[in-house]
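Hey, resending since the last one bounced:
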Amino acid sequence: MTVTIGYTTDDAFIAFALARGVTVTTPNASIYLTKAFDFMEAQCWTGQKTDYAQANDWPRNGVYVDYVLLDSATVPVGIVKAQHVVALSIANGFEIGRASCRERV
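The structure tokens again:
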């Protein structure tokens, strides 16, 4: 059964890892993706959330990708890939620390 965690699914992550020669089991995929998602949500992103009440940082308004304004309903493929890369790093034993950003209120 496919489970969505953050910006991707466990099946998509398992396929991503397998294409890179790493075997990830279903229960572990969820753990790695959750940790990767937590890390990503602690990052400072350009633009603003499309809705103040939305749970995740993406999608966002005011974001340019390759000098083109991104549609505010779109989560860039780079964000999905980043979650996969961070999750794979965690699966390979890398410690991922929490980042912090300063924000004016």
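Helices lie at 10-19, 26-41, 77-91.

Sorry for the duplicate.
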